[in-house]
Design a protein that fits this description.
Elements: H1 2-22, H2 28-32, H3 49-75
Helix pairs in contact: 1-3
Length: 112
């Protein structure tokens, strides 16, 4: 369930980014007076403003709802152990085993 919602969340985020990038800015109406307004006829006589605005708003609501749901699901996922539960006490000098040292190491240069 969590993985499916995560994939849907990613797809909605990418589509939302695409719709925001397609929309015209506030100053785009100025270009229409110089002959650049003919591109709005693809979406009808009212232009693409209503369609893109509504779709962006719907996608934004879905995005935020999925964010809250995923955050709620992720809060219960994790170890119940604390990092402090796994701390080990270091060994003291009396507990450290001594390693026997050989006097005549042939591997060490200068040793006999």
């Amino acid at each position: 369930m969590y993985e499916i919602l995560l994939v849907v969340y990613l797809i909605v985020a990418l589509i939302l980014i695409g719709f925001v990038m397609i929309q015209q800015g506030k100053g785009a109406d100025m270009g229409a007076s110089f002959g650049a307004g003919a591109s709005n006829t693809v979406f009808g006589s009212s232009g693409s403003g209503n369609f893109l605005t509504r779709t962006t708003a719907i996608l934004a609501v879905i995005f935020f709802v999925l964010s809250l749901v995923l955050g709620n699901l992720a809060s219960g996922r994790g170890d119940s152990k604390s990092n402090f539960d796994t701390i080990e006490v270091p060994m003291t000098e009396t507990e450290v085993p001594e390693v026997p040292v050989e006097q005549n190491n042939s591997d060490v240069p200068g040793g006999n």
